[in-house]
Design goal:
The complex is a heterodimer of chains A (285) and B (244).
Chain A lengths: L5 H12 L15 E5 L7 E7 L2 E12 L10 E8 L13 H16 L15 E3 L3 E13 L4 H15 L1 E7 L11 E10 L7 E8 L2 E4 L3 H5 L3 E7 L5 E7 L6 H33 L1
Parallel strand pairs in A: 4-6
Antiparallel strand pairs in A: 1-2, 2-3, 3-6, 5-6, 7-8, 9-10, 9-11, 11-12
Chain B lengths: L24 E5 L7 E7 L2 E12 L12 E8 L15 H17 L8 E11 L4 H16 L8 E8 L2 E4 L3 H4 L5 E7 L4 E8 L4 H37 L2
Parallel strand pairs in B: 4-5
Antiparallel strand pairs in B: 1-2, 2-3, 3-5, 6-7, 6-8, 8-9
Helix pairs in contact in B: 1-2
The chains are: A alpha+beta (285), B alpha+beta (244).
Keywords (chain B): Cytoplasm, Exosome
Subcellular location (chain B): Cytoplasm; Nucleus, Nucleolus
GO cellular component, one term (chain B): nucleolus
Chain lengths: 285, 244
């Protein structure tokens, strides 16, 4: 990205202070969101989300595996994000690894709940097939194709859309299995179980520039940020995860204020996203 | 020797195509707005995005060339692009080889002497792989370079062909490619009528090889016509938007 001149930086900061951003938005307005589902036919579920110039794809693949010995009644979920060099030349080779890891971990934190699996957006017990022996391993892959700021929100929205689109094949287990034997499983090609995605949270990133916070920052606005908080909120208004980025310190009262702003913004975002996903699924048929 | 019939007695392939029929092509220019040039190219189920950044200042001074531009290329596959989920999207040997192949092919056609001391980066990302990814990447890179306005001698197009059940087949998909028969990938400069890329695996008698290569070249020329149409359409759109 080409650097910003002092004049441009000043323009961005003053604009935000006056509630008028570079593209004319208000501080708490999102860019138009476009959702397309089912774009990767060989995955069990997939979606592409465009937020302005930010373009991300999420895909969900389910494979049969063995549950861990510590949690035999739960399936496994893993989130992995890759930043494609098409988004920025600096992501070439291993350059994008740091950002990819940061995004993957932040998403896992918001979607998967604590170490015991409690409070997860997706219920891992719904992924078990035969307790202790066979479970579904869910691999959620995100790919950043084009980056113009606010990657975390876009990825979370894409994952939510991809999970709404996911159909896990129905598995018939052969009747008699004893002891440590692996049961015979028959994966159906016809019937699919849809996921219940109402519990999946969205992520709202609030970027603090000067004294004010903005939602859905573009990469130019992100370059001016002092700090940012990404808050994951679900439909019930519960906070599911929190990440603070940026070196500047924040007064705790400001953090609480940002959380309440995020909850307020998330209601509109969830409604908008749900209607976009429903429209995308309808047009896919 | 597998007994699977890749060409049925009526002359239809596994996906219903005729032996000399290519898969459906679809191209879109300008998908990545931050890149200098970008394009999406689909050949059947194979879908590839190419983005070009350049000409710009050389990032690594030691690689600077005084009299012409440095061309770099990276090929990566998405985790979900193949049927079984891939663990390592970049850095494996196949990706490195394909990056090299695309770089050499595109370098031959870019007029690098017009942009000395600069760097052109071509990044190709495979979203869905169903055979012929090499060719789709080269076609997408051509479109992206044209979108970036980088001067070229000619467009480069690429197509693959094979030979199964005693029939030359154009544009193999993944199943046909994995069948163990020969796979010939050709890249040409259509107007200049020159071959810039030629790769083959497995074995073929020489006279049949000439047939198969000729078929692949015909495929390349058809793709070149399609690419020219897409570029013309794109230019008309730009003219229209500028109000000319």
């Amino acid at each position: 990205m080409v650097g910003l001149s002092v004049g441009e930086k000043h323009f961005i900061q003053c604009g935000i202070a006056q509630d008028l951003r570079l593209d004319g938005r208000k501080r708490l307005t999102y860019r138009p969101i476009y959702v397309e589902t089912g774009i990767i036919p060989q995955a069990h579920g997939s979606a592409r989300v465009r937020l302005g110039a930010t373009d991300v794809i999420a895909s969900v693949k389910a494979e049969l595996g063995k549950p861990s010995a510590l949690q035999p009644d739960k399936g496994k979920i893993a989130v992995y994000v890759d930043c494609s060099p098409t988004a920025a030349p600096m992501f070439e080779g291993r350059g994008g690894e740091e950002l990819s890891t940061e995004l993957s971990v932040a998403l896992e934190r918001c979607l998967l709940g604590g170490k015991s699996g409690a409070g997860a957006g997706i219920d891992p017990t719904s992924l078990v097939v035969v307790e202790g022996k066979v479970c579904w391993d869910l691999y959620i892959d995100g790919l950043v194709i084009s980056s113009d700021g606010n990657l975390l929100d876009a990825l979370a929205a894409a994952i939510k859309a991809a999970l709404s689109n996911t159909g896990i094949p129905k598995v018939d287990v052969a009747a008699e299995t004893t002891g440590d034997e692996q049961p015979e499983v028959n994966i159906s090609d016809e019937e699919f179980l849809q996921f219940d995605t109402s519990g999946i949270p969205v992520i709202v990133t609030l970027t603090k520039v000067g004294k004010h916070y903005i939602v859905d920052a573009t990469s130019e606005e992100e370059s001016q940020m002092s700090s940012a908080i990404s808050i994951s909120v679900n439909r019930k208004g519960h906070v599911c995860g929190l990440t603070k980025r940026g070196g500047a310190g924040l007064d705790p009262s400001i953090i609480l204020d940002m959380i309440s702003v995020a909850k307020h913004v998330s209601e509109q975002l969830i409604n908008k996203l749900d209607s976009e996903i429903a429209a995308a699924e309808a047009s896919e048929e | 020797m597998s007994k699977t019939e890749y060409v049925s007695p009526e002359g239809l392939r596994l996906d219903g195509r005729r032996p000399m029929e290519m898969r459906q092509l679809r191209a879109e220019i300008g998908t990545v707005s931050r890149a200098n040039g970008s394009a999406v190219f689909e050949m059947g189920n194979t879908k590839v995005i190419a983005a070009v950044y350049g000409p710009r200042e050389v990032q690594n001074r030691s690689q600077l060339i005084n009299d012409h531009a440095l061309v770099r290329c990276e090929y990566s596959m998405a985790n979900f692009s193949t049927g079984d989920r891939m663990r390592k999207p970049k850095g494996d040997r196949r990706s490195t080889e394909i990056s090299l192949v695309i770089r050499q092919t595109m370098e031959a056609c870019i007029l690098t002497h017009l942009m000395p001391r600069s760097q052109i980066d071509i990044f190709v990302q495979v979203l869905q792989a169903d055979g012929g990814t090499r060719s789709a990447c080269i076609n997408a890179a051509t479109l992206a370079l044209a979108d970036a306005g980088i001067p070229m001698r000619d467009i480069v197009t690429s197509c693959s062909a094979g030979y199964l059940n005693s029939t030359p087949l154009l544009d193999l998909n993944y199943i046909e490619d994995s069948a163990g028969g020969p796979d010939v990938t050709v890249g040409i400069l259509p107007k200049l009528d020159k071959v810039t890329l030629l790769q083959m695996d497995a074995k073929l008698p020489v006279d049949i090889f000439e047939n198969v290569m000729g078929l692949a070249i015909e495929g390349c020329k058809a793709i070149a016509n399609y690419i020219r149409e897409v570029l013309l359409e794109n230019t008309k759109q730009l003219e229209y938007r500028r109000g000319l």
